[in-house]
Design goal:
GO terms for molecular function: acyltransferase activity, transferring groups other than amino-acyl groups. The protein is an alpha+beta fold. The chain has four helices and nine strands; from the N terminus they run ββααβββαβαβββ.
Length: about 180
């Protein structure tokens, strides 16, 4: 795994313990968490630090993981984005950004870089994603990234209807 990834405006790097304030800010914001499992809502920075401690240790054994997204111009932490293995051996694209950075293309830009990484270096045949039925912002990002809805794979979990998306690797990249 690379040490970091870049886009025109962003640096993507693995989580550090110093990211606990970012994780807390994301998971304590009711608007950010509106369409996400309630067990991920944090009431203290210590909870975020505990999560990061476990995640960083486990991620050492994973081919893919979620990473912190920083703006190149000022090193401001904007949120996170990345791939991770989920059930059935699928690899899922996920992202979460601080509310003040919504609508500025950061999720699409970082997501696109992860797709390139997953299909090129990761040699993936496909990448999946999910968005809660009410989360129109995330649905728009997935559409911009050319994911295709697969309604037959929708599911209900954590009190939400989850819409399933899939993106096959470009034909010239598949084995």
């Amino acid at each position: 795994m690379k040490e970091y990834l870049e886009t025109e405006r962003l640096i993507l790097r693995p989580f550090l313990f110093a990211d606990a304030p970012l994780i807390f800010a994301l998971n304590a914001d009711p608007e950010v968490m509106k369409f996400l499992p309630k067990d991920e809502v944090y009431t203290s920075e210590e909870q975020a630090a505990d999560f990061l401690d476990q995640y960083i240790r486990k991620a050492q054994d994973w081919q893919f993981s979620r990473w912190t997204v920083l703006r190149k111009s000022d090193q401001k932490k904007l949120g996170w984005c990345g791939l991770r293995e989920v059930e059935k051996g699928e690899v899922d694209l996920g992202f979460r950004f601080l509310r003040e950075y919504w609508g500025q293309g950061y999720a699409t830009e970082s997501g696109q870089r992860w797709l390139e990484y997953g299909f090129n270096e990761g040699k993936l045949a496909q990448i999946v994603a999910q968005a809660a039925a009410g989360n129109l912002g995330s649905q728009r990002v997935l559409t911009k990234l050319n994911f295709v809805r697969e309604p037959e794979d929708d599911a209900v979990a954590y009190g939400f209807q989850w819409l399933k998306y899939r993106l096959p690797a470009p034909k010239e990249r598949t084995r």
